[in-house]
Amino acid sequence: MIFDMKTIYKILITAVVMTLVFASCDDSYGPRKESVPQFISASATPGTFNFGDTITLSVNIIDPATNLSTLFYEVIDNGKVITTGSVPLNGDSAELDFLVYMPLIKDQSDNAPIQINLIAQNVLKGVSHHVVEGLMGKRPVYELLYLVTENGTVVPLESSDADKNRFEATELILDPTFRYKIAHKLHSDNSIDYSSHVYGNVGGRIGMIGENGESAFAYIPDVEYTKTFTFYNLPLFTTMVGDNLGADDLALSSFGSEDIDNETFRTITRTLEQGKSYTLFGVLGDSENIYNVDFFERESDSKVKFLGNTGEYTIYFNPVRKNIFVGPDDPSYPDYLLASGWGLGYPTNVTSAEIGAVYSGHNRTHTNWGFGNVLNYVLLRKTGDNIYQGTFYTPGEHDHYAGFKLFENTGWGNEKKAGDFTFTGEQIISGDNDWTVSNSEGDPIIESANYRFTVNLNNNTVHIEKITLN
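Above: the chain sequence. Below: its structure as tokens.
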């Protein structure tokens, strides 16, 4: 076969280009030589572990001919893959120590033989396999677990003598729907200790989670509260039993919603009887909620006694302020006095910053001149013949000022001027007309706190004392 010079020239050019291409490959990936990685050693510690814990996988790999790329691993329990992962590699050798989480799966057997399959790959796709055997996984054993709801309620879950994997709490008063996690250990402040096992939502099912894991979701239709919660630790699922309220029970599920002065309240109107105790269900029983101490005595987290006169009241619950107070229809003397003006607020342990983050411009104090809504004024309850009691937070820590008056009704009736009274106890009131709590913002004199005013119209005296609320 005879080639002309033009054809020979093209062949030579092509040969040179191909040589450069292969040279380039050698520079990037090492010599183009068939090779596979070699496992020098591979082990896992501890050899016996609890599912839900982490183990350390130690691997030594070399490939003198080609750069390493990736180590893949899969954990096998009785032929079932329970977790997988990969570790990037570089260079021609790798000595690794890394943690592998050993998950607890549904119906996980105890004392399970575990193996770890390893695949090492180099940059030219050469692979080799290795198996780590002789490992044993044990189911975690608990004596006590804790149901922790997102609003901070903590409920112990007791184990069953008949079934060590069944944990239950009864006689509950939780809402029919709530978010929760199940924890093995708690800190002293009842927050979850994530160094131990915690269960939550994993892909719509109950599973072990870390600190950034999601809460699980509980819901029982057509009931007003949850009274039994059961966690089954072997099949990893929960069951709940609910019920409906009795005549003397209070639960948020029976409350409506109302917007008042750009704040969202949950409200209900019902008859309350003086001296009767009412059971609080769900979020209404949270310990951080402050019930108006002039109308309620907190007997426990789940019970309050009503102190006011028997009658129909609207109960107001503010889920941001976390306080509860009552308002009768058109309150007036002789059953009540009303304080209207600036700088009073029903007691709450929530700060102005927290309130303002939800309701822009709002603070712990909420009163204003007028009677347009129940946040404009606060009530003093009759506790004796012409004697009235009201407990309020004042002055606002944002402006260190309060100025208000007492009235006999919502029509500005029979105002009570400060100059008509003698003040005893905490000397926080000044002025002859308005009841003024006056401070310099830069140098406040009077502490912003909860103060109880006891007003005696028989002798025109007002006793003021600082009150500490839990």
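Residues 1-27 have pLDDT under 50 and may be disordered.
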